[in-house]
Amino acid sequence: MTTIDMKEELYKAQILVEALPYIQKFNRKIIVVKYGGSAMVDEDLKRKVIQDVALLKLVGFKPIIVHGGGKEISSWVKKSGMEPKFINGLRVTDEPTMEIAEMVLNKVNKSLVSLLEELGIKACGISGKDGGMLRVDKKLSGGEDIGFVGDIKSVDTTLIHSLLKDDFLPVICPIGFGDDHHAYNINADDAACAIARAVGAEKLAFLTDIEGVYRDFNDKDSLISELSTTEAKDLLASGTIGGGMLPKLNNCIDAVENGVSRVHILDGRIPHCLLLEIFTNKGIGTAILSEEAEKFYNADIVC
Ligand SMILES: Nc1ncnc2c1ncn2[C@@H]1O[C@H](COP(=O)(O)OP(=O)(O)O)[C@@H](O)[C@H]1O
Ligand SMILES: CC(=O)N[C@@H](CCC(=O)OP(=O)(O)O)C(=O)O
């Protein structure tokens, strides 16, 4: 082995050693990964995300994937001769759109299961309708009727826990049941947050199409690496957060305030962003922390 080869091998070993305290910390802990955006459209990135989740499972974590597929739903809505319509980031979902959304989300769901199975991971793809997991009320947006869009009112975790107990990796798509027994379309960020809260996840990671949260959206140097819930609320009140980041950040605050220790917004365009965030000392993206967690989170990590 040449000196250069030896240095490269030592570097790899160092990375593995750096991961050790994180592996110990998260052993048998539940991590919910909200998977959507560009990382879902690009086939190469998709494989890398699934490899990351497979690795988390194989080193002893209990990952759960909650996925979206908004871009693919829009593409099929267009193919069907309709125009996708959103109000405040939520898809206006009439009967034909609901049918397309359910078909597309189920297709995406099974494609993720296939990728995991290819890597030897026992995965089970379900929707929020299975086992009565996600029960919803009809959601109104600014008082407007936006069709079959669900506001989650309860999460029954029985099926998720059964799957985890039998060593399956649950892959969940955001469709729920209303009291009228109709299927409802749920924003995938809302579904991920509600599920993470209900199962008492240690971590919730949102993979999205941007580096993280910017203090000033027009200044790309203003990326925030850590935000307490108080700071996040101040930021929301300051009006510098817009678009899809508004509900995402609100979901982050909701998750942290309801027992999820650490919530991350990660750039899904970066290959292996999940591994980089979880297993390295630097971390990437924006972490939203409770005041307590901020003080104690790294206290027991010894490198
Ligand atoms: N201050 C901000 N920091 C980061 N993103 C912001 C900010 N304000 C608005 N945004 C917008 O929020 C978007 C992320 O939300 P969204 O597109 O809904 O993500 P996803 O499709 O992954 O759920 C970003 O692409 C960006 O355009
Ligand atoms: C009500 C509502 O808007 N539902 C979303 C569900 C999918 C989703 O959220 O996908 P991403 O996470 O990839 O955006 C939709 O129909 O697009």
Keywords:
Carbamate kinase; binds adenosine-5'-diphosphate; eight-stranded mixed beta sheet; globular; four-stranded mixed beta sheet; acetylglutamate kinase activity; disordered C terminus; 11 helices; alpha/beta
Description:
The chain has 303 residues and is α/β, with parallel strands linked by helices. It has a domain at 22-74 and 98-126 and 187-296: 3-Layer(aba) Sandwich (Carbamate kinase). Helices cover 44% and strands 25% of the residues. The chain is built from 11 helices and 16 strands. An 8-stranded mixed sheet has the order 5-8-2-1-11-15-16-14, sandwiched between helices. Strands 7-6-9-10 form a 4-stranded mixed sheet. A two-stranded antiparallel ribbon has the order 3-4. A hairpin with a 2-residue loop joins β6 and β7. α7 runs parallel beside α9 (245-257) and α8 (229-238) runs antiparallel to α9 (245-257). The longest helix is centred in the N-terminal third of the chain and has 24 residues, at 3-26. The chain is globular and about 65 Å long. The structure holds adenosine-5'-diphosphate and N-acetyl-L-glutamyl 5-phosphate. N-acetyl-L-glutamyl 5-phosphate binds at residues 36-37, 68-70, 73, 90-91, 101, 149, 174, 185-188.
Show the helix and strand layout.
Elements: H1 3-26, E1 30-35, H2 38-41, H3 43-58, E2 62-67, H4 70-79, E3 86-87, E4 90-91, H5 95-118, E5 123-127, E6 134-141, E7 144-155, H6 158-165, E8 169-173, E9 175-178, E10 183-185, H7 188-199, E11 203-208, E12 213-214, E13 223-224, E14 226-228, H8 229-238, H9 245-257, E15 262-267, H10 273-279, E16 286-289, H11 291-296
Parallel strand pairs: 1-2, 1-11, 2-8, 5-8, 6-9, 11-15, 14-16
Antiparallel strand pairs: 3-4, 6-7, 9-10, 12-13, 15-16
The structure holds adenosine-5'-diphosphate and N-acetyl-L-glutamyl 5-phosphate (X2W).
The site of N-acetyl-L-glutamyl 5-phosphate (X2W) has 15 residues, from helix 4 and strand 4.
Enzyme class: transferase
Protein name: Acetylglutamate kinase
GO molecular function, one term: acetylglutamate kinase activity
